[in-house]
Amino acid sequence: MLDTNIFLNKLIEEKYTHLCVVPCSFAKNIINAVINSKNIEYLPCASEAVACSVASGLKMSGAKPIVIVQSSGMTNMGSCITSLLKPYGITFPIITSWRTYKDGDSEIQHQHLATELPKLIDSYGYKNTILSQDNIDKAIEEINLCDTTQTISILKKDTFSKVELENKHKIDLSFLTPRSKYLTYLNNRFKDTDTLFIGTTGNTAREMYSFMPDTDNFYMAGNMGGALSIGLGAAMAGKKVVVCGGDAEFVMHMGGLTTAGRYKDLDLTYILFDNEQNKSTGGQNTYQSHVDYINIVKASNIEVEEKLITSLDRFSDIMNDIKKTSQVKFICVKCGLDDETPRPPLDVVKVSRF
Ligand SMILES: Cc1ncc(C[n+]2csc(CCOP(=O)(O)OP(=O)(O)O)c2C)c(N)n1
Question: Each residue of 128-141: pLDDT tens digit?
């Protein structure tokens, strides 16, 4: 295991300036160390494509960025890598986690790249190197190699030693109603109806499995950012759909709003459960408090509940009314945290027909 703080200090000595990130739990400790540090900037990104483009702009302007993402996000970066980095000869370290997969595991989003990640990297015209897990100087050398050549660094589980986030960076949501209460309400309100619930990758779907046992649920384990659009497709095919999303998932492919906003007469609701963090990858702050979700959605021609929901009473009033009109709707709930709940098992996750 690498001592995370020593590794980070060496990166700073090497004059790396920014860490452009979409979180993965494998990178939690290095992310925490960077957030704690004043000497390198933490740059949380809406998607891996954004991270790669921001890093390109930084590098082309004389800064020294590093990108850290999850293997599932390497595909999001494909266009930036193949049509910008390669043809323009721009290089900077890209570190991708390598998620594994065991037969029977419900994290089916990782199954393909668990074996094919090196081939994907190869198809981008890059070499790969596994980040050393026991020799910091070798690990730094590898990062430097990735800074100057078309090489992607692969991060295995448990590479970095534990680093706690300093208290000043922690989010306190204890004054808010936890998401479980809202999900339990939805379960009681919609059980025995034909409404389809789509839960987004991250903890939203996991919690739906625990707190919404009686509704018709689709647990979308991967395809982060695609929940609104899959809901749009289902609603256009005649389904009544409610998507339960998270704040990180919501922004990943926010362009889907402009597609959804074109259509009326659909029974589609998106409930954004904003807990200000990437709960499932280690609780990293999304740093999105500057984003006015409600007005972004409204400006995309989607009907919104104008007020942010912070109470179960208000939520139940709205959900009781919601089926009286039928067009795309958006509701934003500011919610608190629940304890960890189990992942839904493979047989309930792996559904290919609604
Ligand atoms: C393309 C892609 N990038 C990164 C991830 C890793 N990942 C899984 S869930 C998640 C964060 C989800 O946060 P949010 O949507 O706010 O929901 P929460 O877990 O907080 O409920 C991330 C970054 C992923 N699954 N796919």
Answer: 999 999 999 999 99
Residues with CB under 6 A from ligand 1: 22-24, 70, 72-73, 76, 200-204, 222, 224, 246-249, 275, 277-281
Q: Give the CATH number of domain 4-167.
A: 3.40.50.970
Instruction: Find out whether 223 and 252 touch, Cβ atoms under 8 Å.
Output: no
Is 0.85 topped by the overall pTM? yes
The first and second tokens of residue 307, run together, are: 């007020």
Query: One fold for both 4-167 and 179-349?
Result: yes
Q: Does domain 179-349 bear CATH number 3.40.1000.70?
A: no
Q: Which of 99, 200, 279 has most ligand 1 atoms within 8 Å of its beta carbon, as the pocket-test mutant?
A: 279
Spatial distance between the Cα atoms of 212 and 131, rounded to a whole number of angstroms: 41
Q: Token pair for residue 89?
A: 């000869």
